[in-house]
Structures are given as C-alpha cells and as structure tokens.
Amino acid sequence: MLKALRLAVASTALLLLAGCAKMYVITQHLGQPLAAPTTIAIGTIADGLPVDMSSEKKPKPQDIETFRRYLNEEVAKKAGLRVLQEGDGEALYEVQGSLLEYARGSGAARFIIGFGAGTARTTVALKLIDKKTGETVFGGNFSGQVSGGLQSGDQMFRMVAANFAKELEK
User: Fold this and answer.
1) Beta strand pairing status for 93-103 and 38-47?
2) Which tens digits make up the pLDDT trace of 90-102?
3) Portion of the chain with pLDDT greater than 70, in percent
4) Which strands form 24-28's sheet, in the order they lie side by side?
5) What's phi and psi for 98, nearest 5 deg?
6) Could you tell me the CA-to-CA distances from 1 to 8, 12, 15 in Å, in that order?
7) DSSP letter (8 states) at residue 110
8) 94: nearest Cα among 128, 61, 119
9) Is the distance from CB of 99 to CB of 92 less than 8 angstroms?
C-alpha cells in the first residue's frame, strides 16, 4: 500500500513538473521590436519530418491549414501586427516554418485511458523573414502538446502559434 502511494505521489509530481517546462527555444532573438504598423504574411509551413515516416502518421494538408489559421489569428491579436494573405506584396515580413516532430495522438485514448496515453504533440521551427533583405530576424523551435481527453489534437498547433506570437510581441 505504501509503495503504491509513493508511486502515485511521484507520478503526480512528475506530471506537474513536466507541465512547467518551457514549450519553446528561441534560436534567434528579435534585435529590436517591430515598428507599428507592421505587416506580416503567413508563408509556407514545410514538412521537415523524417523521410521514413509513413504518410499515415504525417499531418494532413487540412492540419497544416488549421495551423496556418491559428498562426494568423494569434499574430493578428498582437498590437500593431497586421497579417496579410500569403503572397501579398505589401507584407514587410513573412513567417515560414518546418514541422520537426508530429504525433497525431488519439482523442479516444486521451479521454478513456488518460495518464498521457494518446498524447498529440508537435514541434515546429518558425522564423520571421524580412522580405526586403531575405534575412531571418526572429526564430525558434516551438512545441505544443495535448494530453487532456477533452481537448482536440489540433490545440497543440494553437499552443505553438500562441507561444510564437507571444515571443514576437516581446
């Protein structure tokens, strides 16, 4: 009984500490704040996943579009940032990305089993490109994870988009 209680306490502590980890690593800090009003376009999100990963395990095109929509929404929420449509010549900056990790997970497993079963997760390398110079002015690797049974798996993309926009705003 005591052994089971210790295991339960240790497991709970581990889960709580795991939730405190920062979900991104900035690879290039923004040298100076973006001048308002800044125009940004959400560009290509490429598949940088391992080539030997089966196509069934890769995100579907609609998953990538959902992610792009979340990026659009989260960046637009930030003061002074106006998001334009991809390919719009007016944009001063463009967000580009590459999926580095992706696991769709299982909503049923998250709901029925819990305890991390069916976790959906992704890591995306995102960068902000100055369209005039072609230089990367900001970048990082952003992760999102959904392990709760009541959240849809695509919420991991919203987490990535929110963290990117939060760091871009700083």
Assistant:
1) parallel
2) 889 999 999 999 9
3) 76
4) 24-28, 136-146, 120-130, 93-103, 38-47, 81-84
5) -145, 125
6) 11, 17, 21
7) H
8) 128
9) no
